[in-house]
Amino acid sequence: MATATPPKNSDLGVRTASAAAMLAVAGTALWLGGWWWAAFVAAVATGALWEWRGLVRGFVEEPLAHAVWVAAGVLYIGVAAAVLLALRTDQFTIWAVATVVLAVISTDTGAYFTGRTLKGPKIFPAVSPSKTWSGLAGGMAGATVMLFLISQSHVLQRTEAASGDAEFYLHPFLDWKVAPWAGIAVAIVAQTGDFFESWMKRRAGVKDSGRLIPGHGGLFDRVDGLLAVLFVIGVLALAGTVTQS
Question: pTM of the predicted model, to two decimals?
Answer without folding.
Answer: 0.85
